[in-house]
Design goal:
two-stranded antiparallel sheet
């Protein structure tokens, strides 16, 4: 169930509008690894009518359950933030040079049927890190025994390195150096 807004009609007699509403999290068509304990995403939207489009200030308040990229445990990440987006009615030319302002510009296909859900979906995807971490200092899992290093530290990797040093062709040089001393 996508949420649409008729910007042309809403801002016919006003220079700006301000709305608070909630959108069902599962209606945003996020990738399947995204889930939330909360049913809805709380949204505060401020839209200012400008000459060539609309300036949108979008604040979201929700959370998302993610899997840590190091230890593979699930954790909750708060999604709270404000984004500013300019919805332009003008499409750029093919050979137009991009400017810094174009980084916050989206091109509005239909101002009478503006898809708010799609904008929310994009903002949630942008706000979640590519490699989420449950903690900045997460130690991850041991690649040898599979233990969670945060709760069950092991020395498998040190043992593995020691075995590699002993089996190295250069280990014989160490013996020669010891004999020389």
């Amino acid at each position: 169930m996508a949420v649409y807004m008729n910007l042309k009609n809403e801002l016919k007699n006003e220079d700006f509008i301000e709305r608070d509403f909630e959108v069902p999290f599962n209606s945003l068509e996020l990738p399947e690894e995204y889930s939330s304990k909360e049913d809805n995403v709380k949204v505060h939207m401020f839209i200012l009518k400008e000459k060539d489009g609309y300036m949108v200030s979008l604040s979201i308040d929700s959370n998302v359950q993610l899997e840590c990229g190091r230890c593979l445990k699930h954790f909750d990440m708060d999604l709270k933030g404000t984004s500013n987006i300019f919805l332009s009615k003008k499409k750029p030319g093919k050979e137009q040079e991009l400017h810094e302002d174009d980084l916050i510009t989206e091109y509005l296909e239909d101002e009478e049927k503006f898809n708010v859900s799609e904008l929310l979906r994009e903002e949630i995807l942008v706000q979640t890190p590519m490699k989420p971490l449950c903690d900045e200092n997460c130690k991850g899992i041991c690649p040898i025994c599979g233990a969670d290093k945060n709760t069950n530290p092991c020395n498998c990797e040190e043992q593995q390195k020691e075995k590699e040093r002993e089996n190295s062709p250069f280990a014989k040089l160490k013996v020669l150096l010891e004999k020389k001393k």
